[in-house]
Amino acid sequence: MDFMPEKKKSMTVRRFFTLLLAYLLFCVAGGVVVSGFLFPAVLGVNAAATNMMPALKTENIDFNVNDLPQQSRLYASDGHTVIATFYAQNRIVVPIKNVSGYMQKAVVAREDRRFFEHSGVDTQGVLRAFIQTYIKQGDTQGGSTLTQQYVKNMLMNQAEENNDPIAEYHAQEETIARKMREMLIAVQMEKKYSKPEILQGYLNIAQFGTNVYGVETAARRYFNKSAKNLDPGEAATIAAVTKNPARFDPTVDINASQEQRNIVLDLMLQEHYIDREQHDQARSKPLEETLHVQSVDAGCQAAGDAAFFCDYVTKQILNSKEFGKTQEDRNKLLKEGGLDIYTTMDVDANAAAMQAARDTIPVDDPSGFEVTMAAIRPGTGEVLGFGINRIYDATQNSGGGTRTAINYAVDQVDGGGWGFPVGSTWKPINMAAWMKEGRSINEPLRTMTNYNQSTFNCQEPDGTSYGFGSGNWHVENSGGGTTSPETPLQGLVRSHNTTQASMAQQIGLCSIADTAKDLGYHNSPRDQMDIHSPNSFQLPMTIGSVQASPLTMANVYATLAAKGTACTPIAMTKVVDKNNKNLKVPKANCHQAIEPGIAETVAYAMNQGVVQPGGEAATTQLDGGRKTFAKTGTHEDKYMTTGGFVPQVAAFVTVGNAEGQVSFSGKTINGRSMGTWFGMYIATPAWKEFMNTYLAAANIAPDNDYGNPDPKFTRAVAMQGKTESQQQQEQEEARRRAQEEAQRRAQEEEQQRARQQAEQQAQQQQHAEQQPVAPAQPQDQ
């Protein structure tokens, strides 16, 4: 029965002689480079020593702190507002000059007070640890120097980077072999690097709390300041954490953290790093009063109202070859590359869009309809922001309800959905296509309610032919029937569908598709983005029966606002990596897509006819007499849209159910009930609120010089087979009918508003009658 004690005693003696050998070797070396330790003669002294000293290949270990995983930061367009951070390890690497002297000394006092005296291995510390652990049989003591701890952390980090769990295990196992390896590398490091460089490495790699790595991140986390500005008490607090990051984190156990802070302050005083007054002043402050804790939540989940824009940026990175060959490479770069990502998001624009969306339909409105908005800066491709009456939540796997990670404002490939039918907001595209064929917007057209589908057949320049069958396409205006003759200008002003069909019949559906593509249009579904996709390239395309994202339509309108200059939407202007190198970012590729005269003529039509009093989008008129260009749309009774621009900003709004088609008829939305809803009742107010709010916040002055029509596209054209007198008579009759229709709609709206007001007053009266009567109060004498 004496076997076990004898074995334990034997192992203890063996360890004693092993560690004693190591201690003597380092004492003799005295900091001399240890390449001599690798000579066979030395290793042959003892078999145990051979087992403890594996082959040392320091050239395979990169001790450059800039190669550590670092957090990436997403900035708004102002260059300083942080939208979100991304990281595998929450770390910001800084040079030693950007760490306060108090912080440097606090770590040395706590972890390695002879740091500036030893040569990588503290022989006194090793002997003390040996005696405490193996002679006195007390608690295990490590005796590790800051240099050794730096080595250990680097070995663990390298193993993680190489996805080598075996190496990771050996880097932290409690064995003599691991200790000896750290000692050997530490001595070599001390020959290669200066003390400040080693201290810099340690301060950047060490863990200073739960998901907090490096001193700069710790300073920002606990005190909302840079490490270079830490005072003695703050420095002592951070230095104390690394001994046990899970326990001494101030946000985990503030009492334990304060106790440890005071211990570090005592050590700093003992080493003469601070004087008695500084010590006493810092020690007397309750730790809770010194903290200014910041969130360490990572990713778009912590970006608040900027979360949907944040998600769009991350999708742009993951989908762009500029950031790596594979999505895995790009994701690694985002979370470990220490990127500074400067985005196009305007803080004021995004805030105004989110507020407008929620003001129009609150997040928890029983109707469940989504308000989705995108804004873009014309002529640049810069996406300014998104508005969605939803709360971003990436913890769910799909959209639905009040919380979602789906950004309905963008294409499916960028994290959005299938898009929305855009209705009559498509019609400015038809007008641009008409003028591209050299036609005048004042040319009278015969319209009808039935068109032979074969008359729309067309051929693309590459020879691809498209046919649409031999049947009839039945199309009517929203009020029923048709108006004939009617010009393209009148067809846009009155938002008549039959005129769009007549235009498409004459110039061909291919011409309209090509113009839409030139303006920046594509479908939203991932596998149907080409406008010639069978699901979209059909005759109803001319009246907006397509699936488009609000961002795509905002970009189309931005082209019209920029004199025909089309750009690819971009979310980033600059990306700088941790080595201060500029990385390539997706380009806007701005180019002249259509003639400036065509763009300005479409703008003229949208302003003079559509927005001016009596027009279909008169309610879009912006504040202060600002010249406004807009168009409303309604797809059946299920989607409401409004798009528009001023020369500096273009925006598009869609209102509907993103998960499936739901009728607006009879719905109560944001406390308002209507039998029939139109875009002007719900999408237009959202668009108008955003534009007015953002233009005022950004102090953007009106530019009322835009929208001058090109005479060659507004010339009068005689209708074939009609005398001038007959044409004038027919056009006058068409104008009369249009005015009557506008008056009829205005009367209906007024009657509807009167009914709603009466209902609200009745409800308020009923509510007041149901309230208990308060007892009379005594009057002052």
UniProtKB/TrEMBL annotation:
Domain Glycosyl transferase family: start-end pairs: 81-268
Family: In the C-terminal section; belongs to the transpeptidase family. In the N-terminal section; belongs to the glycosyltransferase 51 family.
GO biological process: cell wall organization; peptidoglycan biosynthetic process; proteolysis; regulation of cell shape
Provenance organism: Bifidobacterium [indicum] DSM 20214 = LMG 11587
Coiled-coil residues: none
Name of this protein: Penicillin-binding protein Pbp
Keyword terms of this UniProt record: Carboxypeptidase, Cell shape, Cell wall biogenesis/degradation, Glycosyltransferase, Hydrolase, Multifunctional enzyme, Peptidoglycan synthesis, Protease, Transferase
Domain Penicillin-binding protein transpeptidase: 374-673
Record bears the keyword Nucleus: no
PANTHER family, per database record: BINDING PROTEIN TRANSPEPTIDASE, PUTATIVE-RELATED, PEPTIDOGLYCAN GLYCOSYLTRANSFERASE
Annotated spans, Disordered: 719-781
A Gene Ontology molecular function term of the record: penicillin binding
Positions with biased composition (Basic and acidic residues): 732-753
Matches recorded under InterPro entries: Beta-lactam/transpept-like, Glyco_trans_51, Glycosyltr_51/Transpeptidase, Lysozyme-like_dom_sf, PBP_transglycosylase, PCN-bd_Tpept
The keyword Transferase is annotated on this UniProt entry: yes
Domain of life from the UniProt record: Bacteria
